[in-house]
Amino acid sequence: MKTIAALQAVVTASGFDGEPSDAELDAIEREMPLILAEVDLLDVEIMTLDRPATELDERRIRRARNRVLAERRDLTNRIGTVLTGGAA
User: Fold this and answer.
1) What is the Cα–Cα distance from 32 to 85, expressed in whole angstroms?
2) pTM of this structure
3) pLDDT, tens digit, for every residue of 35-78?
4) Burial of residue 37, with CB atoms counted within 10 A of its CB: 0-12 exposed, 13-18 middle, 19 or more buried
5) Residue 25 vs residues 44, 71, 75: alpha-carbon distances, Å
6) What is the 3-state secondary structure (H, E, C) of the chain?
7) I need a surface site. Which of 22, 28, 64, 78 has the fewest CB within 10 A?
């Protein structure tokens, strides 16, 4: 019978310390406004799961969706500016 540990060593040959790199932390920092907007949208959607959505709930969902779209747009514009060196 083969052991799993022997096969796993081949798959994970490179050392992984389990911590994110500085580049990954920077990427998370750049995406944090979008992440927070998506969490807010999820919170609003969860509030309406157990009851019918009222007009106020529909407004909250619409505002949260618009905020997510705006943050996605802003993130895309920021990344585009960084990639082109600001010459865009």
Assistant:
1) 22
2) 0.70
3) 999 999 999 999 999 999 999 999 999 999 999 999 999 999 98
4) buried
5) 28, 19, 16
6) CCCHHHHHHHHCCCCCCCCCCHHHHHHHHHHHHHHHHHHHHHHHHHHCCCCCCCHHHHHHHHHHHHHHHHHHHHHHHHHHHHHHCCCC
7) 22
The count of residues in the chain is 88
Measured between alpha carbons, how far is 53 from 41 in angstroms, rounded to an integer? Answer: 14
Residue 61 and residue 38 in contact, taking contact as beta carbons nearer than 8 Å: no
Residues 6+ apart with CB under 8 A from 78: 30
**Whole-number pLDDT of residue 8:** 52
